[in-house]
Each structure stands twice: as C-alpha cells, then as structure tokens.
Design brief:
168 residues; mainly alpha; Four Helix Bundle (Hemerythrin (Met), subunit A); 5 helices; 74% helix; elongated
Amino acid sequence: MHFFGLFFHSSFNADTGIGGTWPPFEVAIIGPWGLPFVNSLILVTSGAAVTAAHHFLINGNRQHTADFLALTISLAIGFLYYQSSEYRLLPFNISDSIYAACFYITTGFHGFHVFIGTCFLAVMLYRIEKEKNLTRAHHIGLESAILYWHFVDVVWLFLFIAIYWWGS
C-alpha cells in the first residue's frame, strides 16, 4: 500500500518542478482502454476460472478442476505477456519522472505477485494431476492459492482505477 500512497501523495501534491500537474506534462501516459483494459478482462476471467476450479473440486470432478486451473494459469501467463508488451510500448522509463517511477513500481510489483500466484496455482495443478492428493475434504493449499489469486485480482482492479483510469 505504500506504493499507492506514494502515487496519491505525488498526484495530490504535484510539485511545481513537474509543472504542477499530475501526471507531469512531459510524460506521455498510456490510456486505460487498450492493453490495461484487456489485462483487466484477463484477470477477472481468471478469477472466475479459479473459482470454477474450486467448485468442481468440491463436487468431486477432478478433471474439470484441472482444466479450469490450467485455464487460470494460461490466463495468468497471458496477463504477464501483455504486461511485458505494454512495458515495451511505453514512451517513458522508470527514471523519467515520479509518475513513471510510481507506474513501474506498482505495476511491476503487481506483476511479480501474479507470477508468484501462477507458480502457486501450477503446484496445485501438479498436485491434482500427478499426486492426486487434493480432494474435496483435503484442499487447503488450493483454497489458499485461490484466496491469494483473488487478492491479486482485487489489487489489479484498484491499480487499474487509480493508475490507468484516474491517473490518466
């Protein structure tokens, strides 16, 4: 939350050294309705897919659980791909301004959490398919991974609203 605090503090107290505006005049920002919106749809869909995986496990359908976990992981990889594509397209870099630093730190830190969550979900997929030790009665690891994934989703929605939509 400190990163969001830095972003909001800088935006509400735009220094005259950056033109007194937020974002600074010299920063060409990315609009919210291109790749950021696509990534939002990807993460919301992944949240629905991981919830479906949980539902199927509780109902004893291991194959559908594995299928929806694989879909969630695929969507997560897609999110990371599009996020890295966005970084390559940005007209600014992390050292250009306080806005650019806030942008890269918040989106990059979130991307790191997506990567960690993806690894967590991949371990759960392995446990379902290979070890077959996740059951409707024993799946605390999967529930933990799902809660973490939903946390990542919610943080992205806040990030999308604050950085991409409001920040533009």
